[in-house]
Specification:
Order of helices and strands: EHHHHHHHHHHHHEHHHHHHHHHHH
Structural class: mainly alpha
Number of helices: 23
Helix content: over 70%
Shape: globular
Radius of gyration: 23 Å
Strand content: under 5%
Number of strands: 2
């Protein structure tokens, strides 16, 4: 077979080399991107209120500051996916960092509401490229260890939320929202600083037929990790990937695509993508697809909604509970207690991460998610009525633990629902649906609470929790 010269694939080389110093650098770099994403998302719970006070915005205008970021993420997820697939992972995440950091920094100098909305939309476009970096990281990790390292990678989001809460606590009382926006953009610029040290994904290079470039990357990895590559010649490994695809007609399309030029390959890829989308809604998969979309939408709504509720409930209680204080409190003067409360509830993600790792295999994916959602209902139900600041923080802390744990388990379970041929498309579409949850949640967490409809707002959250829990129970 090919003159008896032994061959090996990228996957086989990664397994042979193991996880070493090179992968540790890739983890640190992509983890910094995760921290940057978390910080840009978390600051929404602080900035909206301060901007509302400075520019006299309505509750709907304040909500839009958050919603427009998620709208930008919807656009960015599609655009950066195309860029990274056609021009490389490095090009993709370099531009995402540039757009996120640049728009984030310029937001600090926004002269009016309209310019702030445009710039926050662009920040969302940049944040939409987050999956590019996570894919880049996983493409350097040995296949048998990807699940473990994905959980570890998720921990960087938790670090980012805690860092942003700490930064807001230190900056906002004395310097205001503009300084918080500027400082929160720094992690994105750190990515640009270390960008020259990064290498292109060898898996991507092999997919594009650039075997020599892929071999150069693999040799660099082996040298940094102080190990040797397998003996023989590096191959693209197309044959192995085809065996994983159960649909014979799709396999035939892929084999024929290999024999065509690049333009024909791109055309067939587009057709294959359309076929994959149609398969998601085929009789065999439509039930799983609709349930997964429901749960992704619900959990995104709940997660980001709880982040906003931490600050909004405090102000809503004071605005609606004391008529004499209306003129003062509607300025949203944020005291140190608010930053302390957000800081405490952000730490709820740490036990959430540990809890998800502890129960996901012991109790199973479905039971883990549904039980956490039901417990979160118990945590948040008392908030239908005005509570003391301390009790509000305790209840939100408990709900944050449960929703964080559920979200982590969902990301582990989602790829397991679909066959290999449509797995990436299925999970990608579900993640896009989740953005709509982020767009909608400010209307409840901000708009309804500001309108003194706290009971109705919490009732909406409870309903979403219950619907999501029931949907989980019907998962295959």
């Amino acid at each position: 077979m090919e003159d008896s010269v032994s061959t090996y694939t990228v996957d086989e080389a990664l397994v042979s080399m193991g996880f070493g110093k090179f992968q540790a650098f890739v983890l640190a770099y992509s983890g910094m991107a995760k921290i940057s994403e978390a910080m840009e998302m978390m600051l929404l719970s602080f900035v909206g209120q301060s901007v509302q006070a400075e520019w006299g915005l309505s509750a709907q205008e304040e909500s839009l500051i958050t919603s427009v970021v998620f709208l930008g993420m919807l656009v960015g997820a599609y655009c950066w996916g195309l860029v990274s697939d056609n021009y490389g992972r490095r090009v993709g995440f370099n531009f995402t960092a540039l757009v996120t950091g640049g728009a984030g920094l310029l937001s600090a100098f926004a002269p009016n509401y309209s310019s702030l909305i445009v710039l926050r939309f662009l920040v969302g476009v940049g944040l939409g490229g987050g999956p590019v970096l996570s894919s880049w990281f996983l493409e350097f990790v040995p296949a048998p260890n990807r699940g473990t390292w994905m959980v570890i990678f998720s921990a960087f989001w938790t670090i980012g939320t805690i860092m942003e809460a700490s930064l807001a606590w230190a900056v906002m009382p004395n310097f205001g929202w503009r300084w918080l926006l500027a400082l929160s953009s720094l992690p994105s610029f750190a990515l640009l600083l270390f960008y020259p040290l990064t290498l292109e994904s060898p898996r991507y290079l092999c997919m594009k037929g650039r075997i020599a470039d892929a071999l150069h990357v693999m040799e660099t990895m082996a040298r940094v990790n102080r190990v040797a590559l397998p003996s023989g010649r590096l191959t693209s490994g197309h044959r192995m990937e085809l065996h994983e695809i159960s649909d014979s007609s799709e396999t035939a399309q892929l084999v024929s695509a290999k024999k065509t030029n690049l333009a024909d390959h791109a055309s067939k890829s587009g057709i294959g993508g359309l076929n994959a989308i149609l398969r998601l809604l085929s009789p065999n998969l439509i039930r799983s697809t609709l349930l997964l979309w429901t749960v992704f939408l619900g959990l995104a709504f709940l997660y980001y909604g709880l982040v906003l509720l931490t600050s909004e409930l405090s102000h809503g209680n004071r605005i609606c509970g004391s008529e004499g204080a209306v003129a003062i409190e509607t300025t949203h003067t944020i005291d140190a207690n608010l930053y302390r409360n957000v800081f405490i509830t952000s730490f709820g993600e740490v036990p959430g991460l540990i809890l998800s790792a502890a129960i996901v295999d012991k109790f199973g994916r479905k039971l883990s998610m549904s039980s956490m959602l039901y417990i979160s209902c118990l945590c948040i139900t008392p908030l239908m009525f005005s509570q003391t600041e301390s009790l509000t923080t305790v209840f939100l802390f408990g709900a944050r633990i449960c929703i964080s744990a559920s979200f982590i388990v969902l990301h582990i379970y989602a790829p397991e629902i679909y066959p290999t041929a449509v797995r990436a498309t299925g999970v990608g579409f579900a993640s896009s649906i989740a953005r709509f949850g982020g767009i909608l949640c400010p209307l409840v967490a901000v708009g309804m609470v500001h309108a003194c409809h706290q009971t109705a707002a919490i009732a909406v959250f409870i309903t979403v929790m219950l619907v999501s829990a029931v949907a989980v129970s019907y998962f295959p």
